[in-house]
Amino acid sequence: MQNEYESEEWSRMGYLHPGQEQGARRLAELELQYRIVKEGYFLNVCCGDGQGMEWFHSYANRRYGVDKSFDLLAKARKRQPGLQWIQADVTGHLPFENEWAAAVLCECCLSMFGEKKQFVLGELKRILKKDGLLLVADLEWEEGIQLESFSLLHEEQHPEWVKEFAARWLWENGTLPSCCSGTGKSKRLPGYFLAVYRR
To answer: Would you give the end-to-end CA distance of the chain in angstroms?
Structure first.
């Protein structure tokens, strides 16, 4: 069964996350501002069709994207054929060495890992070099996202991006996407934040 993020409805939205390219572009600016690790690779976790990678030019061909979707990775390879695209389930063991990456980008994915979130964060910490950066753009429900063992360097709140994304989706498809539909008794839209953490 096709998941929502591989659907034609999602593809019609253009960029696959709230904030469109603003979020990735802003995280790329912050990555340059806070970077102290000069050697290493850049990894985009749950990279989808690879749009988020386009703003991290300074890593050139040292950019890797990982996603479990064969179809989205095919689009990524077509979009940027010179980069490395790997099919893998990020809730399992990531196929990278310890202290391999200088920076890791997680756009709109940590909030979806549920009980596997802490395992994924452990894997991200394992592959990040000491003082490497974890760049996060994500939905934020009432509990927020706790990142133990990472130091928060910068955070911004952008709830307006979710409202814009939800309104566009509702206009195009007649319903809200599942990521914006609320959980339990909560019918409100989630917040949205950008953050930079250091390992």
So the answer is: 37
Q: Is 42 in contact with 56 (CB distance < 8 Å)?
A: yes
CA dist 197 and 151 (Å) reads 5
Q: Are 102 and 35 in contact (CB under 8 A)?
A: yes
CB distance 161 to 192 below 8 Å: yes
145 burial type by CB count under 10 A (0-12 exposed, 13-18 middle, 19+ buried)? middle
Compute CA 70 distance to the chain's CA centroid, rounded to the nearest angstrom. Answer: 17
pLDDT of amino acid 17: 66
CB 63, CB 44: distance < 8 Å: yes
As beta bridge partners, residue 197 has 134, 152
Q: What pLDDT score was predicted for residue 121?
A: 93
Name the residue with tokens 């790997």. Answer: 86
CA distance 168 to 166: 5
**Partners of 31 in beta bridges:** none
SS (H, E, C) 63-98: EEEEECCHHHHHHHHHHCCCCEEEECCCCCCCCCCC
Question: Distance between CA 52 and CA 160 in Å, rounded?
Answer: 19
Tokens of 136: 């996060």
Q: Which among 61, 69, 84 is positioned nearest to 2, based on CA atoms?
A: 69
Helix/strand/coil for 39 = coil
Cα–Cα distance, 94 to 92 (Å, whole number): 6
Read off the pLDDT of residues 138-164 as tens digits, 9 standing for 90 and up. 988 655 566 778 999 999 999 888 888
Give pTM, 2 decimals.
0.85
